Amino acid sequence: MRTNPHILEINAHNWLKQLRESLGRDSLTLADVPEEDLFEIKAHGFDAVWLMGVWQESPASRAIAREDKAINEYLSHTVPGYDRQDIVGSQYAIYDYSVNKDFGGNEALLTLRKRLNDFGIKLILDFAGNHLAKDNPLTLTDKEIFVHCDEEPKAKELFFQTTKGYWIAHGKDPYFPSWTDTAQINQFNPKARAFLKETLLKIVPLCDGLRCDMVMLMINKVFRDTWGNFVKEEMPSEEFWPQIINEVKNLYPSFTFLAEVYWGLEWEVQELGFDYTYDKILYDRLRLSTAQDIQGHLNAEHLYQKRSLRFIANHDEEAPLTAFGREKSKAAAVAAYTLIGARLFTISQLYGEEKRLPIQYTRGLRTKDEDMLSFYKQFLEIINNPCFHGGQWTIKNPKAADEEDASFKNILCWAWTQQTTQKIIVINYSEVPSKCIMPLDKVPSDENLILKEHFKRNETILPSAQAKKEGLLLELQPFETKIFSVDF
């Protein structure tokens, strides 16, 4: 993959259902995805597809999802007349790490992977090391792999009873209710760790990378604080991840590990060996904070920035049009996806869907917002320029246009420089008109300098000698963005 790769998240259930219905082929598998669909992904410049939810579905999770009150109430308001048969089990309550038989199994996935690779696109799959589905066969044969009690526990609401009579904990984030369709793996148990390692090594040959779910829950200190009262094993002296990541990369040097991680543990997880970690802090600041707060986050250590996964949408977050609003979502996209680090997009984001549906719902809204689709087509074309992948990224600090105007503080600005080309990104990240003096790199005052603005294809600026020396005056409307191209 390129430096600062573009990754497209695709829900496998939604993708196949839509293709089957549009082509009239009920038995279509992953191996049968039309060539034009893969070519379109390539044409938009994506380096990798994260195909979310390919593993064998849990019958128990499906039954729970179809009766789930919150899911059904949300769908009844969002998709009137929806069919419960279109609800499947959670893609993270994994019954077995083999590709869903309805998708064509492992063989079909390998065919799709080869076809993607032939286009220069990598395939990323999921690994959920914190838990399995509650009906995974191991819950009845290897209870020691899970957090369990032989007698009814006091915190009964955290557990479910198996047909063998013992109790197994549901998977859990300590800040939220349990995931009632899952079984919590005992991260301190040697047999559990061996199972996780064996499983991961089994699925690595099927793909080019893994997006690892809720990685912070597997960190020793986090697991101890969450489940220490329910396990008898001592905390291991080493973390699970470094050894297995090293082993995989020795076998497959270009293999990519992405980590879903929160709570300020991103750097710690990067230190465990992950190539990229979720940048939820940036997402939250783009949604809720000011330009100054956003820039404060971007002043973090360069290597941390380089290994961050930037996004304004994924299957857990609200749709950008709802989370940000139309113009702010465009500004947020320009801010997030012109930074160093990996860049994550979703299909529903590109098409401008207004609602995030539960991942268990397979049909999707299937709407297209032509304004957003046009924006992303143009924007992806811009940021696929080699400068955004092989250049050097630096923050620029806009200056006040005059002493009495503090609106320059609303403006984000940075640049990419590669050889004699520079891309300058300027964003008014506020609800009010703002202006600033944008610094230009030092050039001789008598040398021709032309700035071409990408979003307005015919707009060019010829800075004066004074502007070359002191900076260019810019006035931007609320959430207006500009990407200039400069050739020295």
Broad CATH class of the largest domain: Alpha Beta
Shape: globular
- In the CATH hierarchy, the third-tier topology of the largest domain is known as TIM Barrel
Largest sheet geometry:
8 strands, parallel, barrel
Overall CATH architecture of the largest domain: Alpha-Beta Barrel
The portion of residues forming beta strands comes to: 15-25%
Q: Which percent range fits the helix content? A: 25-40%
Q: Total helix count? A: 19
- Output the radius of gyration: 24 Å
* Total domain count: 2
Average pLDDT confidence is 94
In angstroms, what separates the terminal alpha carbons? 28 Å
Report on this model:
The chain is an alpha/beta fold and 488 residues long. The chain has two domains: 6-132 and 187-390, TIM Barrel; 392-487, Golgi alpha-mannosidase II (Immunoglobulin-like). It has 19 helices and 23 strands. The strands form six sheets. The chain has an eight-stranded parallel barrel, surrounded by four helices. It has a six-stranded antiparallel beta sheet with strand order 16-17-18-23-20-21. Helix 11 (280-288) runs antiparallel to helix 12 and helix 15 (326-337) packs parallel to helix 17. The longest helix has 14 residues, at 105-118. It starts with 5 loop residues before the first strand and ends with a strand.
